[in-house]
Amino acid sequence: MKKESYIDRRELLASCIENDSVLVLFSGLAPQRSADYPYVFTPYRPFYYLTGIDREDAILVMVKKKGKVNTFLFIEKPDEKIEKWTGIRMKPDEAKNISGIESIFFSEDFKDYFNRIFGGQEIKNIYMSIEHMDSKGIGNYNYQKSIEILKRYPSLNLINVLHIIGKMRTIKSDEEITAIEKAVKITQVGLTEMLKNLKPNLKEYELESEFDYVVRKNGCTGFSFKTIVASGKNGTILHYESNRDEMKDGDLVLIDLGAEKNYYCGDLTRTFPVNGKYSKRQKQIYDIVLEAQRKVIEAIVPGIPFSSLNDIVKAVYEERLMEIGLIDKKEELQKYYFHGVSHHLGLDTHDVCEYDINLKAGMVITVEPGLYISEESIGIRIEDDVLVTEDGCRVLSNDMIRTTEEIEAFMENNK
User: Fold this and answer.
1) What are the C-alpha distances in Å from 235 to residues 80, 204, 285, 379, 405?
2) What torsion, rounded to 10 degrees, do the Cα atoms 60, 64, 70, 71 define?
3) End-to-end CA, the chain
4) What is the percent of the chain where pLDDT is above 90?
5) Are 254 and 382 in contact (CB under 8 A)?
6) Which CATH class is domain 3-169?
7) Is the pLDDT at 139 greater than 80, yes or no?
8) Which of 84, 181, 265, 273 is the most buried (most CB within 10 A)?
């Protein structure tokens, strides 16, 4: 991204912030895994979205008084001794050139600076990014820092800036669309390599390694999420991740994965026959899922409610599953389909954007209907990434084969 993009984003955000306010966002720290070894660091996405800085212990501060906004960036201080172990730290000029922020300081001075803000001027509000906690009730780094700051300054009014940033992230810029397209292309290449090497008796993780190689070879920042390679009954588990089982002749394997290029995500799913041929029943269910996906894609146009996409899927499923006798009444569908068909895609796989709105040009969303018939060990999901355009949509992952005929022919030709 050009630094002007980050400057424009901050200016837009500043226009949404009240006077007598300060905004604080932290890039985060990699948690310690054990002993002296940390987990891999990845920048907090709202912070990265506004700065382009992907280093640990960096802090964005924006102070708004009487309509004027002053912006500051705090980064780790260079240290020759530490750099011999962990590499060269970012210099102020580098941070300035990436982010477009002129006032660069060191993170070790943040607390003193913050105290001066409240000592020298009246600040009523503090804007921070507060995301929902995980299932164990543990908030992320920015949440933890918000608790720490409020303990020190209890009179401050805490305002969650996440919904403002989410609204900004809903419509992608041309630069962002290009970045997502790169991630999707690499994801397609990796998925194709997996299909070339698919055969009975392989372990799920062996197939996963084919994708890992492509992602690493293409210099990606990482994976959009933990790759799912779910064979047989594992495919009926929505977020199966262990990838340890052997793929058996006659089974399907559901593969859900994404490459992350410059922190922008791809997200594709395909369901392949392990032996290269779908059974009659597998093909019957697959074609129903594919019909639902096609009808959703055909319906995508600016102006329709985001929520209506899932209604289209349900309508197809209710009709088709009653036709084949899998369900007797519509209410039974939830046994076999229990997730939404779409989410936003961008800096996060499930991008922090607006959902209770109508579709608009510039949105990038997934279309991923699935059916999960546990009693038959059939789990099928088909997912593509779609850009909403002025007059419809464009499937960014359209180069990836998806019909049973295309998949069977490809596997036959690559034996």
Assistant:
1) 50, 12, 13, 4, 21
2) 10
3) 42
4) 86
5) no
6) alpha beta
7) no
8) 265
